Amino acid sequence: MKTIKIPEMMCNHCVESITKALESLQGTENVEVNLNKKEAYYEGNADDESIKKAIDGIGFEVESIR
């Protein structure tokens, strides 16, 4: 499972937006978003650049993907 650090996440609306953005990408599955840790998790083969663009596109910045 890959981990995306998104420090700007502040509320459940953020969680919903990020979940939808990640689920809409080809190559992501089993998406989970943890507000307390400010992280999102997914399985699949989506490339990091696509992930960053999807998150940036809804107004958040990705700190890291590991």
Question: What topology does this entry show?
Answer:
Blueprint: E1 2-5, H1 12-23, E2 29-34, E3 39-43, H2 48-57, E4 64-65
Antiparallel strand pairs: 1-3, 1-4, 2-3
Question: What would you note in describing this structure?
Answer:
- The protein is an alpha+beta fold.
- It is built from 2 helices and 4 strands.
- Strands 2-3-1-4 form a 4-stranded antiparallel β-sheet, covered by helices on one side.
- The N and C termini lie close together (9 Å).
- The mean pLDDT is 97.
Mean pLDDT: 97
- Structural class determined from secondary elements: alpha+beta
> What's the helical proportion of residues?
25-40%
Number of helices: 2
Shape: globular
Beta-strand residue percentage: 25-35%
Secondary-structure element sequence?
EHEEHE
Span from first to last CA?
9 Å
Uncertain regions spanning at least 5 consecutive residues: none
The total beta strand count reads 4
Radius of gyration: 10 Å
Order of the strands making up the biggest sheet:
2-3-1-4
Q: Main sheet, how many strands, which sense, barrel?
A: 4 strands, antiparallel
